[in-house]
Structure formats: structure tokens, C-alpha cells
Design goal:
- With 367 residues, this protein is mainly beta.
- It has 2 helices and 21 strands.
- It folds into 2 domains: 182 residues, Beta Barrel (Lipocalin); 151 residues, Lipocalin (Beta Barrel).
- The chain is 3% helix and 56% strand.
- The strands form 2 sheets. Strands 16-15-14-13-12-11-21-20-19-18-17 form an 11-stranded antiparallel β-sheet, with no helix packed on it. Strands 1-2-3-4-5-6-7-8-9-10 form a 10-stranded antiparallel β-barrel.
- It is elongated, with a radius of gyration of 29 Å.
Length: 367
């Protein structure tokens, strides 16, 4: 449980604040050999479930005022990422209306520490993250933050833990952890066990996505000679492409032979299907170079079209590359390449290939 308002962290002050904090502030005392080897990945298992929460929030922490606001709601916490993380979803109502938030909890097995990152529904952005660990039956996680323009430390504590209840509170410190002032406290009472996450749907079998492209094709190509320069100079040529299944249908290969204004081109495009993700990867080689490119494009078919994406250095700049393939009829198809120098906001198409089917018959695999 994390308070509904959160200001940006003073990241530059983090190291200085923690360096000057007293020894009592440290998230972990000097570890013993037993502490170093302890597996804490199940420390927060007590928190899984559906909880009723009663919240009291101080409106003016670090001031003499004791004015508070009370909220009441529900907290649901469940495992995600195959048990390597957990998600906390919060809904509460109070004098100012409805409030929602979400926290992600992650365990670092090397440091034996937990992190908690909060996102409020109103802002929709990440808040500074807490980091800390369990000691003596309670958890203490710390972070730096700002309050009314001042850098502060925030301590989150889970305590009084039983199978059906526990307490969460946050305390603020403006003096490097010498003194702490209560800001937020929530008492949670268990309503039910955590809901079982729905089984992930089986990936769509896209292993036949490219079946429309198998065969021998005549090809007419147009290519922009100087992409991303504002030039509109194109060159054109004709060629022939043969596309066939390989590797028992788990991949396919397109072989292009053409004579361009710059000379003959002998090129292959290797496309491999990943059944776990339902995505395809593509890579290219020419006979002049004799090896596949370093960066494959990755894509997935949608509505009969696949857009492969990758990032490559073009003219000394990192540029997004999109390579697309789609059918335009029973015996025609198109492939095209486009570049984006502005992170995908705009695209310039620089290579267009139009294919017309000659025959569905191709030489045998490996021929």
C-alpha cells in the first residue's frame, strides 16, 4: 500500500542522503553468513490475497498538524511473471472520491532485497521505488523523495503480520533518518485467497503465415537512391524470386536474382517462425557479402500483413527499419522497406518490390 500522492524523487540527492544517514537507517545491518545465503523470495507470500484496508493518511506530514483523512477499500495481491514478481492493485474511497493504484514487487536474489514500484491511476507514471529487506518478522524498504520542495527519506514498513491481518505504514524523515514522522498507515484484514491468474492463451499458430508466398515470382523493384535526404531519385529493375519452405516448414527462404543499374544482385531472405511467441524473424544475405546481417527484424502477421522491425546504423545514425510483406491478390504480393529517423513517428519508404506469380511449383527443398 502506497499513498495516493507522490512527487518526483530528487535523484541527485540519493547518494548524499544515504551516505550521511545514521547507521540505523541502513536497509540491512552487516550480514551474517546465514543472512547472505537466506532465500527471501517468499518473504511477501503472506501478502497474497484479497484484503479489506482501512487507511489513515496525515495531510501535513513533518508539521505539527495532526489533521488526517480516512479511506476504506480493497487490496488484491497476486503472483505474476511465473512467481518472480507480484502485483498489488488498490482501490479505496474517501472524502475526495475514488482512488486507485498499483505496485510491482520484485526480489533481487543477489542482494537479498525487495523493491516496490508504485503507479497511481491519476498520474499514470512510475513513482520512485522502495528498496529494502525483511528482518525480525517485518519488512522495511526505503526511498528518497521530495515533499514541499524538500528532499526527504521515506520508510515503508510491513509489521504485525498474521495469517489474516497485517499493518502497512509510511514514515517521513527530513533529517537523514534521525527522526521519523508517521505519514500513512493501513490496517489490512484478509477477505479471500489470491485469485488464480488466468492461463495465458496459447500462441496463435502462425507457421503457415507465408504459405501465400511460396512459388516462383517475377519481380519489379524501385529503390530510393539516397534515403532520408529529401531526395526523390529512384532506380528501377526487374528480377526473379523463388520462395520455398525449409526446415520442415519451420522456416522459409526467398532467393532473389536481379540485374540492377549497379550490377547483378543475388540475395536471400531467411524467415524463421518462433512458435512460443507467434512471431517471425527475418535476415538477409548477399552472395557478395556471404553472411547474414547482425540484426534480424522481428514481426508478427496481422490482417494478412507482417511488419518486421529492427534498428540499424544508416549513414552513421541509428535508424528504425521496417520491412513489410503482404499479398495484394491471389497471384500478386508486395514487399517494401522503410526507414524512420524520429523513433517511428514518420516513415520514408525507400524500396518497393512488386511480385507476380509465375508458378507454385519450386525445386525441391535443398535443391
Amino acid at each position: 500500500m502506497t499513498p495516493m500522492t507522490r512527487k518526483g524523487a530528487a535523484a541527485a540527492l540519493t547518494a548524499a542522503l544515504l551516505a550521511t544517514a545514521p547507521a540505523a537507517l541502513a536497509a540491512d545491518p552487516a550480514p551474517t553468513p546465514a543472512a547472505i545465503t537466506r532465500d527471501g523470495s517468499h518473504d511477501f507470500d503472506f501478502d497474497f490475497g484479497v484484503w479489506h484496508t482501512e487507511i489513515t493518511r496525515r495531510l501535513h506530514p513533518l508539521s505539527p498538524s495532526n489533521e488526517t483523512m480516512k479511506l476504506s477499500g480493497t487490496v488484491t495481491i497476486r503472483k505474476v511473471w511465473g512467481g518472480k514478481a507480484s502485483i498489488e492493485e488498490i482501490e479505496a474511497d474517501g472524502p475526495k472520491g475514488h482512488w486507485e493504484g498499483m505496485s510491482l514487487f520484485l526480489y533481487d536474489p543477489a542482494a537479498h532485497q525487495w523493491s516496490q514500484t508504485f503507479i497511481g491511476a491519476a498520474a499514470g507514471s512510475f513513482a520512485p521505488g522502495f528498496v529494502g529487506s525483511f528482518h525480525d518478522g517485518k519488512a522495511e524498504l526505503f526511498q528518497t523523495d521530495t515533499l514541499d520542495g524538500r528532499a526527504i527519506l521515506v520508510r515503508a514498513t510491513w509489521s504485525e503480520i498474521t495469517p489474516t491481518s497485517h499493518k502497512y505504514e509510511e514514515d517521513y524523515s527530513a533529517d537523514g533518518g534521525k527522526t521519523w514522522s508517521l505519514s500513512f498507515v493501513a490496517h489490512k484484514t484478509k477477505l479471500a485467497d489470491a485469485p488464480t491468474a488466468p492461463a495465458a492463451p496459447a500462441p496463435r499458430d502462425g507457421s503457415h503465415d507465408f504459405d501465400f508466398s511460396f512459388g516462383a515470382w517475377t519481380e519489379h523493384s524501385r529503390r530510393l537512391t539516397h534515403p532520408l535526404t529529401g531526395s526523390n531519385d529512384w532506380v528501377e529493375w526487374d528480377g526473379r524470386t523463388v520462395v520455398r519452405k525449409i526446415w520442415g516448414g519451420r522456416a522459409n527462404m526467398a532467393e532473389l536474382r536481379a540485374t540492377t543499374p549497379s550490377g547483378p544482385v543475388d540475395l536471400i531472405a531467411l524467415r524463421v517462425y518462433n512458435p512460443a511467441t507467434g512471431q517471425w524473424s527475418v535476415n538477409f544475405a548477399t552472395s557478395a557479402v556471404g553472411k547474414l546481417g547482425d540484426i534480424p527484424g522481428i514481426g508478427e502477421f496481422k490482417d494478412g500483413r507482417i511488419d518486421f522491425y529492427d534498428q540499424e546504423p544508416i549513414g552513421g545514425r541509428a535508424v528504425l527499419v521496417r520491412f513489410s510483406v503482404y499479398a495484394t491478390g491471389p497471384t500478386t504480393q508486395v514487399s517494401e522497406q522503410a526507414f524512420s529517423a524520429d523513433g517511428g513517428k514518420t516513415w520514408e519508404v525507400n524500396w518497393i518490390n512488386r511480385y507476380t506469380l509465375e508458378s507454385r511449383n519450386t525445386e525441391p527443398e535443398g535443391g
